[in-house]
Amino acid sequence: MRIFAGLALVAGALAEERSAFPTDTAGPNKFAPGGTDPNGHERIREAEKDAYEHPHQAKEWIESIRYHPNEQKKVDHYAREHPGEVEYIRSEIDAFRHAHPAEYAKYKKEADNWLTHARTTYPNIHGFLDPYDAVAISFWIVSIAMIATTVFVMWESLFIGYHWKTSLNVGALVTLIAAVHYLYMREYWVTVHASPIVYRYIDWSLTVPLQMIEFYLILSAVNPDLGSGMFFRLLFGTVVMLLFGFLGEQRLINPWLGFVVGMCGWGFILAEIFVGEGGKAAKDTSKLSPAVRSAFGTCRFIVTVGWSIYPLGYFFGYLLGAVGDHPLNLIYNLADFVNKIWFVLAIWAAAREETRNLKIAKEGLGAPLMQP
After folding, report:
1. What is the pLDDT of residues 324-347, one digit of tens each?
2. Within 10 Å of residue 161's Cβ, how many Cβ atoms?
3. Percentage of the chain surpassing pLDDT 70?
4. What's the CA gap between 265 and 257, in Å, rounded?
């Protein structure tokens, strides 16, 4: 019975104090001895009863099971044979976490350890979405939106002017890479309930340079005289911004130093697209069409205003500790959703408009627009 009490973590760890099991006004408390369990999980009820009556022993056993491999093997074997009961325990943990957060917080470490072990050990258990977990749901929505944007942009690239195709294909890479990483980040969040910092920075290290390339591709397509120096300067600013941000968050360097140097990298990017070679080229109305200027201006606005969310999150969430993991990841997900998809769709809209105008000017209003 003590073996299965380890599986019934919510009954074991949370039972250290009887106050952790307040009486349910709708009926007898199912966690208490003699309580009712509408799902009929008799062995879980027995384990919960045992843990309720002997809370300190149950908690001690749960914390020490990793030092007793034979006991752990018995638990794991039962869990593999009864995946439904393990999922039931997980749902009980989630329900208790939402209903009684103060009591749950006392045993969060034990709960997280058990959930992580269950996800990585029991092959029949997967990281399903919790309807109460807005962050996990936002990870899923963003991943699907990124995939949809990728498919849409790849299809639309067949019907635009040739000099826009590279820009749209690079944009599709941005959303495709982000989609794959968001699928992994969602799984990480659901399983570990912690910020997927490494996955997020890997995503940014690939997608942000591609977004910087877009500035160069948009202008160089209509201005062949534009030098490659702009591309390398944007790439340099991107590397500095992301590298020092990551080193600071991982405490490989002083977090404040990482923040300051990362901000310098972002400032270097803004200087290039506003007053540097890129900014000057964007003002040349003799070579740039209104569509190109519109795309460049929108992308520049996103990099200026949209990207400000990330250093603000670093500052208030990590340096000051004023924002928790849940709201911070929710804000980051929303920022990526807007900044990446809007960035790519701005280029698509400009490409579509310019292609349409050129086709009409050449063939008249009756010219077909859906012709590759």
Report:
1. 788 889 999 999 999 999 999 999
2. 16
3. 65
4. 12
Are 171 and 177 in contact by the 8 Å Cβ rule? The answer is: no
Taking the C-alpha atoms of residue 192 and residue 35, their distance in angstroms, rounded to an integer, is: 31
Question: 134-363, what's its fold?
Answer: Rhopdopsin 7-helix transmembrane proteins (1.20.1070)
Return the exposure string of 287-314: e unless at least 16 CB atoms fall within 10 Å of the residue's CB, then b.
ebeebbbbbbebbbebbeebbebbeebb
- Say if residues 100 and 92 touch (Cβ distance below 8 Å): no
For residue 343, give both structure tokens.
């960035």
CA-based nearest residue to 346, from 210, 226, 171, 151: 171
Two tokens at 58?
């149950």
pLDDT-derived band of residue 1, with 50, 70 and 90 as boundaries? very low
> Which run of H or of E encompasses 60?
helix 55-64
What single string gives the DSSP state of each residue in 226-271? --THHHHHHHHHHHHHHHHHHHHHTTSS-HHHHHHHHHHHHHHHHH
Q: Is 200 or 5 the better-scoring residue by pLDDT?
A: 200
Domain boundaries, the chain: 2-121, 134-363
Contact 211, 177 (CB under 8 A): no
How far is 343 from 211, CA to CA, in rounded Å?
Answer: 8
All residues at 6 or more sequence positions from 16 whose CB lies less than 8 Å from its CB, including other chains: 55, 56, 59, 106, 107
Backbone angles phi, psi at 39, to 5 degrees: -85, -10
Q: Cα–Cα distance between 332 and 222 in angstroms, integer?
A: 34
Higher pLDDT, 316 or 322: 316
**Tens of pLDDT, residues 288-314:** 788 888 888 899 999 999 999 999 988
